[in-house]
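Chapter summary example.
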Amino acid sequence: MKLLKLTLTLILALALISSVYAYSSDDLQFISPRYVNSLPCREIKFQFQIMNSENIINQYHLSVPKYEKYVDFSENDLVIAPGKSKRVVAYAILPCSLSGEVNLDLYVEIKDREGAIKVPLKIDIKSDYSREVSIAPVTVCKGKFGKGSVHVYNPTATPNLILLSADLPHWIELQGNKVVLPENAQADFNFTVYPDSEVGEYLIGFSIKDFSGTEEIPFTVNIKDCENDFKLLNTKLLVVSGLEEEFYVPFSGLRESMSLALQAPEWITMERNISGNYLTLKVKALDVEAGDYDVIVLAQNGETVTQKLKVSVTQNAVVKFLRSYIYLILILLSAIVLLIYAGSKYNISKYNILNRLKPLFNGLKVKKIKNTGLEKLTEKIQIGAKFPKFNPVISFENFDFANFEFKDKVKILKEFKVDFEPMSKVWLWVLLGFALLSVIVYAIWNYFSQVWSLGLGKINFLILSGQELVNFWIKKSGFLLFVKKWLVYFALQAFAYWQYIFGALIVIVIVIGFDKLKSKGYVKKVYDYFFEEPDSDVEEKVYEIHEKKSSVKKN
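The structure predicted for these 555 residues follows.
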């Protein structure tokens, strides 16, 4: 009896075991390989299909006990009807520190049955030496230094040794060729370029070598003739809203074969003048809001050279006033400075501005004073106005004579001749000189106001001037080109505001005319008509004093 029970138990166990292993071989089918190669920190997928070949509904549970934190299933608890199947995906992301062969044991359990199906999975993790290399094309001017760099990045968790080598021309010098990159690190291999070759593009290749192998990295070096490139010498303009203005923008490097194009708002137009080396920008900012506007000037001759011009529109009333009337203000200031200078020239004792301006408006002329006596004449005389409050006084003892004559006759005769040069002949040329100087001053002011009004820290004009002066020592004609360029620029700025010059000439004509009328006595007649009669002529008083002294001596 016992033998019979033992035999039946053995038969049932064999039947159960055979059914389980039959299931593992027939009902669990892998779609993807069970043995894969991978790099550290990479996601790995295993796809398989579970088939229920029995006549009852089965419930399945999937697990990877050793690495359950690093493996996820698309579905780990399944219910499969008889004769049906389901596809399952296992996602594995193992720790980055793992390397070499890693065994994953997949267990498939069926509910209400003892034991589980064990399926071995294997991942061979190899070291990751991948890297990212980038290098930008280098553009450099012939005869000038340039710089470039090779950028290398290690995105992996594996340290890598990078070696850089190349067969470089003599005008490229590599600063370093070896670096060790830790995980997620980056580095730059810098090199300098000083081309003495002909203008053109040169293909250069670097060789990158690490533990994964060798890779060729090509790049280009573009050598340009920058001295002849199109370049705007003024890249910032200040425009006043509500005004129509013209701006002359000097440039360099533009040749007749080049064509120009303008990308700008419709209220900005451009004219080209190659012989004068400047562009004329006509700006009609009548209804333009304040702000900054970008203007692009394109020069095309095979390749396109782009220059950017910044136009700042302001509604500031002070700037508008200065822009409209600055030239007249400069002329008037020049006239005042001249008159102050003229007043001080005649050694006026009262040093206020009104006294200094008096000589002009009192028609100073040549005056001859004779001393018929035997003693030195030390009388003080008055010159010009009869107003006591602003009456300049000049003494013979202190006066610096323009002309002094001493004559001897039968009696001792002293003749003092004081020449006051007519102002109408002197200050006319000086004032015209100030007017011409104001033209130059205005041109300079108009240029620098573009920079200062924008609050810039660097003045391109000074930088440009320094470069041109340096070129003078390198190229003999550099200085002459510099002088010619800026003289043309100043002249253009001045003649662009011809109406201000015309206004200044009107001011000069008015002042000269007033002086002429004063010298001929017309101003005095008008004054005498409206005001009280002035005192008798000072010179006549002096003569009377002389006669009285002479008669006293004779008696």
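To summarize the output: Residues 132-226 form a domain with the Immunoglobulin-like fold (CATH 2.60.40.10).
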